[in-house]
Every structure is written in structure tokens, then in C-alpha cells.
Amino acid sequence: MASHNYKVFSCFNRKFTVTEPGPPPDVQKAFSEFADGASSLSGDHLLRFLAKHQGEVDCTAVDSERILQQSRKEDRESGLDLHDFFRFLLHDDFNSPIKSQVHHDMTAPLSHYFIYTGHNSYLTGNQLSSDCSDVPIIKALQRGVRVIELDLWPNSDEDDIEVVHGRTLTTPVSLIQCLKSIKEYAFVKSHYPLIITLEDHLTPDLQAKAAEMATQVFGELLYYPQTDSLMEFPSPESLKGRILISTKPPKEFLESKEYDDKDNEKESADELSSLPDQTSEQETDDKSAPEYKHLITIHAGKPKGDIQDELKAAGAVRRLSLSEQALEKASESYGADIVRFTQNNILRVYPKGTRLNSSNYKPHIGWTYGAQMVAFNMQGYGKSLWYMQGMFRANGRCGYVKKPEFLIEKGPHNEVFDPRRTLPVKKTLKVKVYMGTGWSLDFSQTDFDTYSPPDFYVKVCIVGVPADMAKKKTSVISNNWFPVWDEEFDFPLTVPELALLRIEVRENDKSQKDDFGGQTCLPVSELKSGFRSVPLHDEKGDKLKSVKLLMWFQFR
Questions:
Q1: Who's near 366: CB < 8 A, 6+ residues apart?
Q2: Are 142 and 121 in contact (CB under 8 A)?
Q3: Which of 266, 296, 457, 492 could form a disulfide with 476 if both were Cys (CB 3.0 to 4.6 A apart)?
Q4: Is the pTM of this model over 0.85?
Q5: Positions marked active-site
């Protein structure tokens, strides 16, 4: 027991006693049940608890003994008493809410996965005037992002290549610096393939120079496709530790260079994705750089006419790019065609051009139609980015999440999943919020309230298909650094495979906007049942050192 003193108007002190809560009644009950009436849990008791209550059926006696050794008090020779057991439940390394290992089938084609994708990965801030740097690229790779986007432009002398957001006030960074940093950090978080998408504004000579740079920097890491036209993408497993290039194949450098410039202006303004390409493309590659073309594994393109025709085009697999607005518009009329397209091909969705502050859109716009590359501005923060981070906490945070089978399969009459259709409830997620801890360690005494301890409450939300969206919250616990809520919520789910559980702690403030106290977003399909320690993150998605919630999950 401790106390906190708050000075009010420099005249007198308010003293608040701080008491850390003990195990909730549900935890005490589970301890008694699995200890068989004894005062401590043995290794066998703990193993039975892990299997039956927590659903950890793969745990072994070795795992149980390791937990015993690291969770009990130093002076205790065997078993866990109630407080040791409670401490173990709050240890997120031992008792995390989701699986920590790669466990999806990684041998399917790349088109069968959602892929952690960045947009304008080199920007440090807004889209108009921030610096270009390799630093945000490094940060993205350290978070597990698997698709890095680079915009390539000639320098002022047109003899070298810069990475810059064209026709803005952003300051450039050299391509060679970006490539070297990508090589160094490509596989620090995930061993699965890294894809570099290039927006190419180069002459054939500079395309050849870019190819030479990539070849020299990446060496054997660089994957070379066996053929110019793939009929099926290779798998993440077969591409482990390799770097892939995705861009438009180089064509004749049109004497109408203005056309290429206008083309990219359209993309920046979100017009390109819905407008037909009025210029016919010549088939000759006499002026193109063959060494550059040879590097391209994932051929990219944009709609050149009617979007439905583009979606139905057969032949070699490829990547198509649509803005968030263009996708929403196309989905109104051609939703089924989009899903069918993404079963074999790759669809990249990018933010609309008016997001000058590097904000993001709701990623489910793309995921519900099977879009693999939902490209995000990783340098910002906000709820949309939390959703993105939540989705890619799945599958061991490797940056590849296997799409649900219903987005890959066709029915007997070629029918596919329709995100707009309301389906029957498949399962109900039960969530219980017991308590929280750690704020007194990670925040100063007056970070939330100047004159008293914080008044915390928890928001618990489901983000997914429209029918599954739900928002609930606990009561406010006043003047307490260690709040105990003990409140339960039910969430009926029609498409649990695409649902995310968003958890956010706020501090109730009667005079102004409620203060932020931590958040996390978890893929519902990965949630483990039973009591779970749920670590919270800051607004940018970095894990807070000590703040966590004790929660309970169950599916019915």
C-alpha cells in the first residue's frame, strides 16, 4: 500500500491511498478448481489448467515446468501459490492474447495473403513538405512491413536517381542510400519476402542505372523471375529471405514525356484509377532497359479502359492499383469481379491524394474484397493505423496473413464472397475486462489529472464487416491507478475471420477531451481463450513498458 499526494491551489494536499488489487474472484475460483484444494499449483495442475481452461492443448510438461520456475517466488521450491498464479496470468510473455509463432500455411501463392504494405515509405511526415529519408523505411521494416514503396525521379542534373514525392516541396534522399538501408533491415522482423514497389519516372538510361544499383546492393537476395509472364505467383515460403521488385514493365520512353508526367499527376489526384488510358502503348521495347525489366517479378499496371474489363482480363498474373475512392466506387457495381480478380492477381489500394497530412483510410475497404496490398502511410497514427497494426499482429507478426478460404474459393456457379450481404452469426465472442495495471509506472503522477489519480474506463469495439461493427465501454473507475472493472460484453460475429478487437483505455475528463491511456487491436481469429494479459500500446503503436489489462476471452 502506498499513497499519492496532490497539491491543490498551492494551499493544501489531497492524499490518496494506492492499493494494488489482488486476484479477481474468477481467478481465485480457477486456482481452487485446478489446485484440487491444495495451497499451490503443481506442474501437473498448471498443465491441466493450460489445456482445459486456456485452450493451450499443445503445451507440454516442459512448458509447464518452465513457467513454474520463472513465475514463483525465489524462496518457493515447488508450485505456484495464488499470488504467483496471478502474477503469471499478468505476464504477457507467458500468457499473451494471441499466438506468437507463424502458423498459417505459407506455401500458397502470394495472392492468397494479406501483405503488410506501406505507401510512400520514404516520407517522414506530410505528403507535401516533409523530408524524404531512409529512416521511416527502417522503422517500417522493424515493424514487419513487407512492401516498401519508392518513387524514383532523376536528380536535377538527370545523371542520378533520387527518391522523392514528385512535384512537392519534399526534400529528396538518394536511391542508393534507401537500397542499402533496405538490405540491412529487410529481414530483421520477418524472414518472408520483401517486395519493393517502384513508381518509376526515369529515362531508360536511369532505369538501367537503377537496375545496376539494385543488383549490386542486394546481390543474391534479389529474386529474378524465371519468365516474363507468371501464370501463378510463387509462395512466401519459397521466397523466404528474398527481395522482389514490382513495377510497370519499362516501355518505350514516350517522346511525349509530358504524358508520363500527367499520368503520375493523375495518380496523385486519385483520378487515374477511374479514368481510361487514352494513349496506346507501343509494343516495341527498343529504347527500354532490358536489365531493368529483367528484375520485375510482379508486373504492375493501372486500368486502361473499363474497370470491369480490366478485372476480368485473363492471362499472366499481375498487380493492379486503385485508390481508396476508386475501389469503393468499383465495389458498388463490380464487387464480385474484384474478389475473383484478387484470387489469383494482386490488388494494391492506396490513399486518396487529398490525404496531405498522411492520414489513412479504413483498411477493411480493401480486405473485405481480397485486396492483398492495402497501402498505408506508416509515419502517421490514428485508429486506421491501429487496425492495420492489429491485422498484422496475426501469424507471428511475419507480415503475411493468409486470407480466409471464402475469399479464395468459388462456388459451383462461380459465386464468391459478397461483403455487402448480411450473413448469419457464426460465433459470439465473449470478452471480460477484469482490471488494469502499469500506469503509475509509465506515466507521471499528474499526466492525467493535476489534483487526483486518474478516472479510467475501457472502450471495447469490433471492427470488421458492417454487420459486426460494435462499440461498448466499461464504467468509469474514479481516482484509481489500479482500476478494477470486472465487466463482460458479448459480440455476435458473422465474419469473425475479418474482425478485429479494438481495446482503448481513456481517462474521463469532465472539462475537456478524455485523455489517452493506451490501446491495442487484436485479430479475432487469433485470440486465445481464457484469462489473458493484454499489453497496451501508445498512439503510434509502440508497446508501453508496463501498462496491461487482465482480460478473459471465450467463443460460443
A1: 324, 327, 347, 349, 374
A2: no
A3: 457
A4: yes
A5: 119, 165
